From TrEMBL:
<feature type="domain" description="Glycosyltransferase subfamily 4-like N-terminal">
    <location>
        <begin position="21"/>
        <end position="159"/>
    </location>
</feature>
<protein>
    <submittedName>
        <fullName>Glycosyltransferase involved in cell wall bisynthesis</fullName>
    </submittedName>
</protein>
<dbReference type="InterPro" id="IPR028098">
    <property type="entry name" value="Glyco_trans_4-like_N"/>
</dbReference>
<dbReference type="Pfam" id="PF13692">
    <property type="entry name" value="Glyco_trans_1_4"/>
</dbReference>
<keyword id="KW-0808">Transferase</keyword>
<dbReference type="GO" id="GO:0016757">
    <property type="term" value="F:glycosyltransferase activity"/>
</dbReference>
<dbReference type="Pfam" id="PF13439">
    <property type="entry name" value="Glyco_transf_4"/>
</dbReference>
Length: 377
């Protein structure tokens, strides 16, 4: 019989947020590794989520989804606790895994073997989270913390040194994607950005770089009409910058493949969808790994946490955050040196295939949990 895993999500499944993309692909990869996975996302209504919700992200395997009702009323948290306890009973999971601090805390306190994954310092958000995190790690069922980056793991252990030996580092990943063909013949050198338009993502850098590179066409894919209009009203948008808006997740690989260069122009402070403060010190961006899968050269902001994955002149070029002149020089290098561009793209693709598919990530986490004797060999 396949081991049963319950994944407690921290947000809704049918969502444009990176959180939802991560959960969908991670659960698909775990199921592909032979586990019987059930997903428990929060919901503000009693309407059940459809198993087909995962198809939004190109996930083909059917995975049961049980919505955890949390009404937006006083006492909604108590309702959530009761519904989760019911789900823990009917699923009878061998392992509870998730990104919901409250959900994993409840599971650990009931004695269910629980593994919590963090993408930011959850305990620092407020005093309530700090207390809940303490209850989680003190829970009878607590087994391990999975950290999205080594920087986040180091920060965690500085605050909770007693967790040393019970942490795992697992960077984010990308779906298994076919190697794309080289970009077709186009009039301009295409520079592609894919992601949100939130503060810190570096849209302002691209708007400053574009006039320095009139030979390039900058495609910005992401953001809704309101956020695009906000940029148009607050900044002069050069003629070679094109805001293409939000596109369905399954359409993005083909659009990335049309680009000569893919860029991640993060600033030194980065916000994420739904708030949550600055994540620049800890992040492991999904889009970065999707870029690597495309076998295209990448230019990324030179942030310490991204150097856990990117290596200057080996699988990417790194440019100073917000420095338009430095970014323009990096793009000129790739324009003028096709062999360098090819090498960077090929090495990024090789690193992706070896370490950064969802299947590889799931395999790494399972191997580490076996090493920690959380699951059977």
């Amino acid at each position: 019989m396949s081991p049963k895993w319950l994944y407690i999500a921290s947000g809704p499944i049918a969502s444009e947020a990176a959180n939802a993309v991560h959960v969908a692909h991670m659960c698909d990869a775990l199921k592909g590794r032979g586990l019987a996975v059930t997903i428990g996302p929060p919901a503000s209504s009693l309407r059940c989520a459809s198993d087909s919700a995962l198809s939004l992200y190109g996930v083909g395997r059917a995975i049961p989804i049980y919505s955890l009702w949390r009404p937006k009323i006083r006492g909604g948290g108590l309702v959530y606790r009761l519904v989760l306890r019911w789900l823990l009973h009917i699923v009878a999971a061998d392992i509870v895994y998730g990104r919901s601090l409250q959900g994993c805390c409840i599971a650990a306190e009931t004695g269910r073997p629980t593994v919590f994954e963090i993408h930011k310092p959850e305990w620092e958000i407020n005093e309530r989270n700090y207390r809940e995190f303490q209850r989680l790690v003190a829970g009878e069922g607590f087994r391990a913390i999975v950290c999205i980056s080594a920087a986040l793991e180091a920060h965690l252990l500085a605050v909770f040194p007693e967790l040393k030996g019970w942490t795992i580092v697992a960077h984010d990943a990308a779906p298994t994607l076919e190697r794309p063909e080289a970009p077709g013949q186009v009039e301009a050198f295409v520079v592609g950005y894919f992601g949100s338009l939130h503060p810190g993502k570096g849209i302002e850098t691209l708007l400053d770089v574009a006039p320095r590179c009139p030979w390039a066409s900058f495609r910005i894919v992401g953001g809704d009409a309101t956020s695009i209009q906000r940029w148009r009203e607050s900044r002069d948008v050069p003629a070679n910058v094109h805001f293409l808006g939000h596109r369905a997740h399954h359409d993005l690989p083909a659009m990335m493949a049309e680009c000569h260069v893919l860029v991640a122009p993060y600033l030194e402070k980065v916000s994420v969808q739904g708030g949550g403060g600055d994540v620049a010190r800890w992040m492991s961006p999904l889009k970065l790994f999707e870029y690597m899968a495309m076998a295209r050269p990448i230019v990324s902001a030179d942030l310490p946490v991204l150097r856990e994955v990117l290596r200057e002149d080996e699988n990417a070029l790194l440019a100073a955050p917000g420095d338009a002149a430095d970014w323009a020089r990096a793009l000129e290098r790739l324009r003028d040196d096709p062999e360098l561009a090819r090498h960077l793209g090929e090495q990024a693709r090789a690193d992706y295939e070896r370490h950064h598919t969802w299947d590889a990530r799931a395999g790494h986490i399972l191997a580490e949990l076996r090493r920690l004797e959380v699951i059977d060999p």
